[in-house]
Automatic annotation (TrEMBL):
GO MF annotation terms: hydrolase activity; metal ion binding
Record flagged with keyword Protease: no
Annotated keywords: Hydrolase, Metal-binding
InterPro entries: DUF34/NIF3, DUF34/NIF3_sf
Protein name: GTP cyclohydrolase 1 type 2 homolog
Binding residues annotated for a divalent metal cation, in chain numbering: 65-66, 104, 226, 230
UniProt family annotation: Belongs to the GTP cyclohydrolase I type 2/NIF3 family.
Organism of this sequence: Clostridium puniceum
Record bears the keyword GTP-binding: no
């Protein structure tokens, strides 16, 4: 029977902890590394609804992308959002593991997987991460298109491949030659992407002034949303675990949802 620590180790072989960004927190958040695992629930966030789902499904481990604990809490008490979650996880004997920016940066991680899901091949990493002499890791990918593409055709491609109904777009130009893809919140890397020749950026969480400035600079933005550029890709990226642990049932959460609604 597989244990929490064995599944954790395989994830960290694929996406070493040292690849995480400085602000991040990855690894086992809650629980016993020696706990035996029969069922794993995969989710983007550790919400109360996801925890209830894990309890209902008798899961032993939740693996999520966004860490429940970004910073060390000053207290763990009932009546507090994070405290309630931790207390419930411990009470129900469910371990919680998070793989975040290390999974984004890893070779064949989330950044590369979303490129492949869109049908492209990346030619360059936007922000390389060579920690621990790691090769081919980092945040964001540059795609040099073999053939120039219309902006609206790219919009429709993203909607189709990532199963998105609505998104925000910034039309900086009508044609695309060089594409930048940064899952989640990517605007910190916009200027670097532009310096690498990107005339269209696919990401999420773009703020107003970035949208306005980059439109004036002739760079289009496809803001497909934080959730939509990560959850489906997170599930795809972790499919290797099913091969490594065939005796474990991996379940995609149905309660892991985009907090935003479009009305």
């Amino acid at each position: 029977m597989a244990k929490v620590m064995e599944i954790s180790r395989k994830i960290e072989e694929f996406a070493p902890k040292f690849l995480k960004e400085d602000y991040d927190n990855v690894g086992l958040m809650v629980g016993d590394g020696q706990k035996e695992v029969k069922k794993v629930l995969l989710s983007l966030d550790c919400t109360n609804e996801v925890i209830k789902e894990a309890v209902k499904l008798n899961c032993d481990l939740i693996i999520n992308h966004h860490p429940l604990l970004f910073k060390r809490p000053s207290s763990i008490v009932k009546g507090d959002l994070i405290g309630d979650k931790i207390i419930t996880l411990i009470k129900e004997d469910i371990a919680l593991y998070s793989c975040h920016t290390n999974l984004d940066s890893a070779k064949n991680g989330i950044n590369e997987t979303i490129v492949n899901m869109l049908g492209f091949n990346s030619s360059k990493i936007i922000e390389t991460n060579e920690s621990g002499n790691y090769k081919d890791g980092g945040i964001g990918r540059i795609v040099k298109l073999e053939k120039e593409m219309l902006f609206l055709d790219m919009v429709n491609l993203v909607k189709e491949k990532l199963n998105i109904k609505n998104m925000r777009i910034v039309r900086g130009n009508e044609k695309i030659k060089v594409l930048a893809i940064i899952n989640g919140s990517g605007q910190d890397f916009f200027y670097k992407a532009k310096s690498l020749g990107a005339d269209c950026i696919i990401t999420g969480d773009t703020t107003y002034h970035f949208a306005s400035d980059f439109k004036e600079m002739g760079v289009s933005i496809i803001d497909a949303g934080h959730f939509s550029t990560e959850y489906i890709v997170f599930l795809k990226t972790l499919e290797f675990l099913k091969e490594k642990f065939k005796e474990v049932e991996f379940i995609a959460s149905k309660k892991s949802e985009d907090p935003y609604e479009f009305v």
